[in-house]
């Protein structure tokens, strides 16, 4: 390990937290809302905490609470959770090559905090460079801690906070917009996003559940891979390269 | 339902949440994947973020049914937020300005200046 690297590593905690705070902003309204719903569904503050610590998957937790209210049995809840969280396979697969320096134990610790949000933040930083698995791990677990605290706060006194205060409902949407913009490193990435967005929206119109996220994303990526393999696109990219 | 029963459900949920996150990491971190697969994966991040985002902005789901909705404050606010994100390259700044703009848009709607 050279000196410069060590210097960079020293404040990994600070840098990780600095990268994580927009995620925490986004989690606040959603975590609180979940806490309020869970409390209305009859879960105690302790049970809410238990759930967030063991599961850490926002949408699946919402679904679990609503299924509990409608009296669903445990196996359907678990199967639904599995389907809802299947998209994490895509996130982890994309992240894996940036975490090749981690031990299996490190990866096991990392996997716990892979969410849409932490993935977006960490993937962007890895691509930009200067990001390390250690900092990424701080992002994952800081977001996780924040999520747990927000859901507990919601279960405790969430009803006191007015709905939609300070535009906080828009925090996660704005974050996804930012993260999406940071991924655009060429025309083909725009194509990937546009195709995926349209495919997901159309599917969302006609289907229940959230499989539209996986199907939309896979559609965008597959079309772009095919597009890039076509002679037309190769010619187009070559022409662009010659221009610049 | 008792706390212990809930605990068992959460444990099951935790397991089926954790494994799809862990297995690809363990499989692909140290192994070379085929070139086409890693190229395909490189398109996944923008595609996935767009797939998460777009339905929120352009699809309205109500009890009566689902339809495209291109005239809603979430979508209108998205345009300046896209622009701010591209210009500032700051995630925190984007989140804060998005919240402020959305808050403003809702105030304007409430006061009757818009729609």
Summarize the structure.
Chain A is an all-alpha fold and 244 residues long. Chain A contains 13 helices and no strands.
Proportion of residues in β-strands of chain A: under 5%
Secondary structure: number of strands of chain A: 0
Tell me about the largest β-sheet of chain B.
Answer: 2 strands, antiparallel
What is the average per-residue confidence, as pLDDT of chain B, rounded to a whole number?
Answer: 90
Radius of gyration of chain B: 21 Å
Oligomer kind: heterodimer
Strand order of the main beta sheet of chain B, please? Answer: 1-2
The total of helices of chain A stands at: 13
Q: Structural class, from secondary structure content of chain A?
A: mainly alpha
How many individual helices of chain B? 4
Largest interface: A-B, 100 and 77 residues
What is Rg of chain A?
A: 20 Å
Uncertain parts of chain A: none
User: What is the SS-derived class of chain B?
Assistant: mainly alpha
Kindly report the average pLDDT value of chain A. Answer: 87
Shape of chain B: extended
- Which descriptor suits the 3D outline of chain A? globular
InterPro entries (chain A): Brnchd-chn_aa_trnsp_permease
Membrane topology (chain A): Multi-pass membrane protein
Keywords (chain A): Cell membrane, Membrane, Transmembrane, Transmembrane helix, Transport
Main location (chain A): membrane
């Amino acid at each position: 390990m050279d000196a410069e690297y060590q210097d960079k590593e020293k404040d990994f905690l600070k840098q990780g937290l600095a990268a994580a705070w927009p995620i925490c902003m986004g989690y606040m309204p959603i975590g609180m809302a979940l806490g309020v719903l869970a409390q209305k569904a009859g879960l105690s503050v302790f049970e809410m905490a238990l759930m967030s610590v063991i599961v850490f998957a926002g949408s699946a937790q919402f679904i679990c609470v609503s299924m509990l209210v409608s009296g669903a049995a445990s196996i359907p809840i678990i199967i639904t959770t599995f389907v809802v969280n299947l998209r994490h396979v895509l996130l982890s697969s994309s992240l894996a090559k940036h975490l090749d320096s981690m031990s299996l134990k490190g990866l096991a610790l990392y996997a716990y905090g892979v969410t849409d949000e932490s993935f977006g933040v960490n993937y962007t930083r890895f691509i930009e460079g200067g990001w390390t698995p250690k900092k990424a791990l701080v992002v994952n677990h800081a977001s996780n801690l924040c999520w747990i605290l927000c859901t507990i706060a919601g279960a405790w006194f969430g009803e006191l906070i007015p709905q939609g205060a300070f535009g906080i409902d828009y925090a996660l949407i704005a974050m996804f917009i930012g993260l999406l913009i940071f991924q655009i490193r060429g025309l083909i990435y725009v194509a990937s996003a546009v195709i995926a967005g349209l495919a997901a929206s159309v599917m969302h119109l006609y289907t229940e559940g959230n499989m539209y996220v996986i199907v939309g994303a896979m559609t965008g990526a597959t079309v772009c891979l095919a597009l890039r393999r076509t002679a037309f696109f190769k010619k187009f990219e070559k022409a662009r390269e010659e221009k610049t | 339902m008792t706390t212990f029963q809930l605990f068992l459900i959460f444990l099951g949920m935790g397991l089926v949440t954790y494994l799809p996150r862990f297995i690809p990491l363990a499989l692909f971190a140290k192994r070379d994947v085929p070139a086409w697969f890693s190229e395909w994966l490189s398109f996944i991040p923008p595609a996935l973020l767009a797939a998460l985002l777009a339905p929120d902005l352009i699809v309205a789901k109500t009890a009566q049914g689902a339809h495209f909705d291109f005239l809603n404050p979430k979508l209108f606010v998205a345009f300046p937020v896209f622009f701010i994100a591209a210009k500032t390259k700051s995630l925190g700044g984007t989140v804060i300005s998005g919240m402020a703009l959305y808050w403003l848009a809702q105030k304007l709607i409430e006061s009757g200046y818009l729609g």
